[in-house]
Design brief:
mainly alpha; Arp2/3 complex 21 kDa subunit ARPC3; 4% strand
């Protein structure tokens, strides 16, 4: 007789709900056009904060969902969807694995910031990666510390274990 092994779900219902709720908040934050242009196709807005919180509480798949929703309303979604998707995936993947100081997982948004100028260079929006990087660095310098602070406060208020169960 063949034994059928039951697969564990990738996300629980709470994680799926959280990824959709925080993704929707990120979507609205960008779609509302409350953004400060900082050069090239880049802007400063608050959707990264919602993406980081949603990813931290919903895991890597939820992080991708949240990141995609954060990127869709952008002026250039072909830049923002992969950049926010990567950042959400990495934050969601690593935060549950960090034994102490889980809020430091917000640092994993940096690869998403570094991906954006590569995409703008490949698509011709910026002539070189370094020029694209000079446009994105002000956003990164503002948003990463803000995301660290907000994630610290969120995790202090609602521990990750409340949503995801016991973590490592």
């Amino acid at each position: 007789m063949i034994e059928v092994e039951t697969m564990k779900p990738v996300m629980n219902t709470k994680q799926l709900a959280i990824s959709i709720i925080f993704g929707a908040l990120a979507f609205v934050a960008r779609a509302s056009q409350l953004a400060i242009p900082i050069g090239g196709p880049f802007v400063i807005d608050l959707r990264g904060i919602f993406m980081v919180i949603g990813a931290a509480y919903s895991g890597p798949i939820g992080g991708i969902i949240t990141g995609i929703l954060a990127g869709i309303p952008a002026k250039y979604p072909f830049v923002d969807i992969p950049s926010f998707g990567l950042a959400g995936f990495l934050v969601g993947l690593v935060v549950p694995l960090i034994p102490k100081h889980k809020w430091l997982g917000a640092l994993l948004t940096i690869p998403g910031f570094l991906l954006a100028p590569a995409i703008t260079t490949l698509t011709g929006f910026t002539p070189t990666y370094l020029i694209g990087l000079t446009f994105i660095l002000p956003r990164m310098a503002i948003m990463v510390p803000l995301e660290l602070i907000i994630l610290f406060l969120a995790l202090k208020g609602v521990p990750l274990e409340t949503i995801m169960g016991k973590t490592k």
